[in-house]
Design goal:
By secondary structure, the chain is an alpha/beta fold. It is about 25% helix and about 30% strand. The protein is built from seven helices and 15 strands. It has helices at about 5-30, 155-160, 185-195, 210-225, 250-260, 275-285, 290-295; strands at about 50-60, 65-75, 80-90, 95-105, 110-125, 130, 135, 140-145, 170, 195-200, 235-240, 265-270, 295-300, 325-330, 340-345. The chain has an eight-stranded mixed β-barrel with strand order 8-9-10-11-12-13-14-15. A three-stranded parallel β-sheet has the order 1-3-5, with no helix packed on it. The radius of gyration is 34 Å and the shape is globular. The model is unreliable at about 5-15, about 15-45 and about 105-135 (pLDDT under 50).
């Protein structure tokens, strides 16, 4: 065949090849379209990340089990900001367990800021446990003792050798014959010099009935506290034993007089559900919400038994619903050293002497 006869076929084939190449080029260009991918659990790869996590729990009731977990894993490089904020507002008195776990990992960071990693708990229950990066906040509960005996260097050594190192030591205002020795200024100095706070107890009565009686006992306690130069802002605990007659009027009178004084009201007793003290306090609290919110409760329920500091039980005091629990006397009448053993909410150190 002559070359002039082949020319149309060559031209046609050339254009067919060019059209095919152009079509393939268009198809490839569609594959270059950017893809947006959502990566769960805070994991991402970029040069600039800004992550904000906020968790808030508002809990009311008799029991609660809360578990919050935040996990940020950043494999980025230049500029990262992480803001974690966990707030638990708890009004639970029995069987509460709160766990907050926050984990932040930022690889290859040159200029990375982790701000606002906050874990806040508030409420009437001081038995909650919180964990951040696997760290338990059992440290928010401190071990302590109380004693009816005058504290001497020998007694302090006895407690340390047989039980542990208390952060709180409960002692009585004034002597009650046959029951307890009253605290003295040298005794207070001995304890305070050993980094021990004093919990102040008033037990110079045996009848917890009547509003005027409650007011009178509170005023007597305030007067003696001032004579001992106990500073303002300290809580004074009325010791209401289980064999005392008690009513809501006495509790109201104690609260009123203490609120008018430079000190804070507190009540000690066996606050289990069957006790008259618990019923009387609950009645007073129902009639006066301020009493419920501002009276510190030091409960002797339940009674687990004396232990050394290292064998202390988990912090599970029993007290009226939504009350301001200060501490738990979990064991009474140790054979050695004449003490009772306690766990206290660390926050109350601010209202101790």
């Amino acid at each position: 065949m002559e070359r002039r006869d082949l020319l149309p076929f060559v031209v046609t084939a050339f254009f067919a090849v060019m059209i095919s190449l152009f079509a393939f080029s268009l198809m490839d260009s569609k594959d270059d379209t950017p893809i947006t991918k959502t990566i769960p659990d805070g994991q991402g790869k970029s040069n600039d990340s800004d992550i904000s996590n906020q968790v808030k729990n508002n809990i009311k009731g008799n029991k609660a089990n809360v578990n919050n977990s935040i996990d940020n894993d950043l494999n980025n490089g230049e500029d990262s900001q992480i803001d974690n904020n966990v707030t638990n507002d708890i009004e639970v008195n029995v069987d509460v367990n709160v766990t907050n776990t926050i984990k932040n990992k930022a690889d290859k960071n040159q200029d990375s800021g982790q701000t606002g990693n906050e874990n806040e708990n508030s409420g009437s229950d001081k038995g909650a446990k919180n964990e951040q990066d696997g760290k338990s906040e059992d440290d928010e509960v401190v071990w302590g003792v109380d004693s009816a005996s005058l504290t001497t260097s020998d007694l302090l050594s006895c407690v340390r050798e047989n039980f542990g190192s208390p952060k709180v030591w409960g002692r009585y205002l004034g002597e009650k014959e046959g029951v307890s020795a009253g605290i003295t200024p040298p005794e207070a100095k001995l304890l305070q010099d050993n980094n021990i706070k004093l919990l102040v107890i008033w037990n110079r009565f045996n009848d917890a009935t009547g509003i005027e009686n409650g007011q009178s006992e509170a005023k007597a306690a305030v007067q003696l506290a001032q004579e001992l130069e106990i500073p303002e802002g300290v809580a004074i605990f009325a010791d209401i034993e289980p064999n005392y007659p008690v009513d809501s009027s006495f509790i109201e009178g104690w609260f009123q007089a203490m609120e008018e004084s430079p000190y804070h009201p507190g009540i000690y007793g066996i606050f289990d559900k069957e006790q008259a003290l618990t019923k009387s306090f609950s009645q007073a609290a129902a009639e006066n919400s301020s009493l419920l919110e501002n009276t510190f409760i030091w409960t002797a329920a339940p009674n687990i038994g004396i232990t050394a500091q290292e064998q202390a039980p988990g912090y599970k005091p029993e007290a009226p619903a939504n009350s301001l629990i200060a501490g738990w006397q979990y064991g009474i009448d140790a054979e050695a050293c004449n003490i009772d053993t306690n766990l206290f909410n660390k926050d109350i150190l601010d209202v101790l002497w």
